[in-house]
Amino acid sequence: SLPEGALCHTPNLSRNNIVEVSEIGLSGNICQLLHPKSLDLSFNKISSFLPGDLSLFPGLSNLDLRGNHLSVLSLTSLSSLWSLAHLDLSDNNLAALPPTIFQQSSNLQKLFIQNNSLSLLSPDLFSGLDNLLLLNISRNDISSHLLSHQVTYPSLSAISRHQINLISCRFLTP
Which site in 119, 144, 148, 156 is 20 to 30 Å from 36, CA atoms measured? Predict the structure, then answer.
């Protein structure tokens, strides 16, 4: 069950030892009434998502999943989150990201994927993220970045690539 005070427009469910999102126990009716814009699931024990786990939150603009045990995300993990503007997947165990995981996330402005075990990034991973302002991919084990073509992010104002070993990576801003 939920901790007291968690039912609000910005539920903070961090540090609750949640293993599966379905454990949250929010029914569709409650989520429709709340229309949360932000959901903090940081520092739990979530290792994966079942299909539809996040579909109860289609209006989310901020999702914090840092500090969990995520090792794999499916192609559809984020597909229902069209309004997502800020996503934090940092401090997990992600070894790879599906090449089209952000395909439905055209509103994404801030993406944090630092401190994972990422060793390979698809050339299409960030395609369509025209509103991206901040990208942090630091503290990963990226030995090859398959961006063989130049990628332009018109609005990208900050990128953090510190402490990674990039062989071929170009992020251009006009």
Answer: 156
